[in-house]
Amino acid sequence: MHQVVIYLTETKSELVYETTFKIENLQHEFTVIRLWEQSTEIFLRTPGLLPFAVSSKLNDKTDTLQQVANQVEGISDRRMQSNIIASAAILAGLVLKEEIIQRLLRKHMMRESVIYQLIKIEGREEGIQLVAVNLLKEGISVEVVAKVTGLTLEQVQSLQDINVENQE
């Protein structure tokens, strides 16, 4: 087995130069890839590596993201296209501002991504649970909270139990 550690953003930590991990009778050796030291061209040549291009060795991250967007438009498979755009947007978020990412990686392409859909569903569920907790704190009955939020009685009771535990 060949282990690889990939560092996505530049850091001053000396740990990024270590290639072994040792404790007692255990030792792991691994290859380290520091994206900020890699040539941008490596990532622009292969569709699956496009999301990493913005973290590579480059002068203008915005220009590189534009190159990624242009290359993705040339991919005929819409599902692959949207998944690469979603991945590129997530990784670009480590080094670029949101408005730049949205401008260059059109939102509608990301919306088709499986990853985007999962994040959206999780966010919606968290929001519904937050509303349920707030209603419970206001003294609204479990039955009414379930009806209003669409959660099951068991889910609301579980949120109520967690809320009580957190108050203790």
Can you put this structure into words, describing what you see?
This protein has 168 residues and is mainly α. It has 8 helices and 3 strands, in the order βββαααααααα. The protein has helices spanning 40-44, 61-73, 78-92, 98-104, 107-111, 114-137, 142-149, 153-167, and strands at 3-7, 20-23, 26-34. The chain has a 3-stranded mixed sheet, with no helix packed on it. Helix 2 (61-73) packs antiparallel against helix 3 (78-92), helix 6 crosses helix 8 (153-167) and helix 7 (142-149) packs across helix 8. The model has no long low-confidence stretch (mean pLDDT 89).
Question: How far do the termini sit from each other?
Answer: 48 Å
Poorly predicted sequence stretches spanning 5 or more consecutive residues: none
Radius of gyration over all CA atoms, rounded:
22 Å
Structural class: mainly alpha
* Number of extended strands: 3
Count of separate DSSP helical elements: 8
Average of the residue pLDDT scores: 89
Fraction of residues in helix: 40-55%
What is the general shape?
extended
Count up the domains: 3
H/E element order: EEEHHHHHHHH
Topology diagram in text:
Layout: E1 3-7, E2 20-23, E3 26-34, H1 40-44, H2 61-73, H3 78-92, H4 98-104, H5 107-111, H6 114-137, H7 142-149, H8 153-167
Parallel strand pairs: 1-3
Antiparallel strand pairs: 2-3
Helix pairs in contact: 2-3, 6-7, 6-8, 7-8
